[in-house]
Amino acid sequence: MARGLAVLCLRRFGSVASRQQKWKSYVSTCNVSTMPPCNFVPEKYKSYPYERIQKIRAENISPTLRMYYKKPLLLHQGHMQWLFDYKGRRYLDCFAGIATVSVGHCHPKVTKATQKQLTRLWHTSNIYMHPSIHEYAEKLTSLLPDPLKVVYLTNSGSEANDLAMFMARIFTRNFNIISLRGAYHGNSPYTLGLTSVGHYKHGVANDFGCSTTMLPDVFRGPWGGSHCRDSPVQTVRKCSCSEGVCHANDQYIEQFKDTLNTSVPKTIAAFIAEPIQGLNGTVQYPRSFLKKAYQLVRERGGVCISDEVQTGFGRTGSHFWGFQTHDVVPDIVTLAKGIGNGFPMAAVVTTKEIASSLAQNLHFNTFGGNPLACVVGAAVLDAIEEDGLQKNSEDVGTYMLLELAKLRDKFEIIGDVRGKGLMIGVEMVTDKDSRHPLPVEEINQICEDCKDMGVLFGRGGFYSQTLRIKPPMCITKKDVDFAVEVFQTALQRHVERAAAK
Fold it and tell me: β-pairing, 75-79 with 82-85?
């Protein structure tokens, strides 16, 4: 009887291999939006074959440098919002080298300025003067409010946050620093004390003098409502708050006070926070949380550090700096990633008083502020202004958020859509009621499908459950339409796979 039933099943549904083949055939014939046109033609790839690249990767590249996708991409060239692989296939880059490519891959204005400087002067170090550091320092600090007018240039975000910690401790003569859980502020031995993501923690001492406090996450945290965030899209959680009143914020501030009263001395060195958490999946706090937190920190003698590594340079759209969206002025600002459009540079901007405290003894950086980096940084600022990229971030980012919110209302596995400008997170769940994270293997497959259709997304969150969407700020609404339609197709395929199990 069992044999007869098996034969019947095979006749009706086909073998497992047959069904898998039919599924692949179905996937290949699904209607997918046409990729927007691009008149850029990449050069022909002439480097090592893919297999040799893989072998070198396995034998000579540190295994801690992990890659996306079952068959990792071998990228060859970039142009604005587009990336091209070694076969010439084009992809819409919705992750921008982890929120780093601000004005566009190989932006012609930045490329031209860099090429010109390459023929003039690469490096002198800070023992001599050269014009580009002075021109850039004046241009950068003119975009920041008083009293943030002194800049120290470094090479990476980790290095900038490392220096900010050092400055805060020297200036205040206090030691303890508070960060938010879920924060990523670097992975140097010093900054790992501030980074509060378990995957980055190694079994060595790195958090002496660092304490974390509850993350005011209005979607996944214990408190949250439908009016908390500075975003075109709010959570689906209900609340009874009236205009200007946020009970969730009050509860999270009480948790912050509890940290101040139990985990640190009466005086502290600093509090550091991203205006919107990046690696943790574009987590936004209640609107007035940072303003109240800054007040409490300053009452304890501490300084306030805004980590603008991902939120700076117009990405949030409404403002040039993320801290401005919270109506605060920090004492120290750290900058990286978008500052150089992919060129390795970073900065710490602070007040004259705090900067002077570091000058009591020698502190030196060989490459920070070299002529080439400063020219790149100045060209990026020019491109943001001349191309209207802050405004584009606001317009296109708001459009994308609203389009993604439509998918949230349609698909049970989208728990939350959030963000501001072109800093967007889409949190994936098993269902909206439980808010349990969608298993990582299912999210990976959704991203694989998107990649196969020509769109690259990032991932973040404690469980890698959130799609991180932070494209170059030159992206267009037509690009957004394409990306959203590709994502919708991938979601539909996921639903059909689940139903077929």
Answer: antiparallel
With a cut of 80, say whether residue 402 has pLDDT above it.
yes
Dihedral angle of Cα 406, 408, 411, 412, to the nearest 10 degrees: -150
221 Cβ contact list (under 8 Å, min separation 6): 214, 215, 248, 252
CA distance 377 to 110: 9
For the chain, the first-to-last Cα distance in angstroms comes to 24
Beta carbons of 92 and 456 less than 8 angstroms apart = yes
- If we measure between CA atoms, which residue out of 70, 69, 68, 73 comes closest to residue 83? 73
Strand partners, 304: 271
Is residue 218 within 8 Å of residue 182, measured between CB atoms?
A: no
Q: What is the pLDDT of residues 196-251, one digit of tens each?
A: 998 888 888 888 999 999 999 999 999 999 999 999 999 999 888 887 789 999 99
Q: Which helix (H) or strand (E) holds 456?
A: strand 455-456
pLDDT band at 32 (very low <50, low <70, confident <90, very high): low
Beta strands in 192-302 (DSSP E): 210-213, 270-273
- What would the DSSP string read from start to end of 294-362? HHHHHHTT-EEEEE-TTTTTTTTSSSSSGGGGGT---SEEEE-GGGTTTSS-EEEEE-HHHHHHHTTS-
Task: Indicate the burial class of 459 (C-beta count within 10 angstroms; 0-12, 13-18, 19 or more).
Answer: buried
Distant-in-sequence, close-in-space partners of 501: CB < 8 Å, separation ≥ 6: none
Q: 150-154 and 346-350: which strand pairing? A: antiparallel
Residue 3 has pLDDT above 50, yes or no: no
The sign of the torsion formed by the CA atoms of 483, 94, 290, 193 equals positive
Compute the distance between CA of residue 384 and CA of residue 321 in angstroms, rounded to an integer. Answer: 13
CA-to-CA distance for 455 and 446, rounded, in angstroms?
Answer: 11
54-100 pLDDT tens trace: 999 999 999 988 899 999 999 999 999 999 999 999 999 999 999 99
Q: Residues 428, 466: contact at Cβ < 8 Å?
A: yes
Q: Find out whether the peptide bond into 147 is cis, omega within 30 degrees of 0.
A: yes
**CB crowding 111-123: b at 16 or more within 10 Å, else e:** eebbeebeeeeee
Three-state DSSP class for 202? coil
CA angle 211, 324, 175 (to 5 degrees): 25
CA gap 284, 219 in Å, rounded: 9
Round the average pLDDT of the chain to a whole number and report it: 92
- Is residue 317 over pLDDT 60? yes
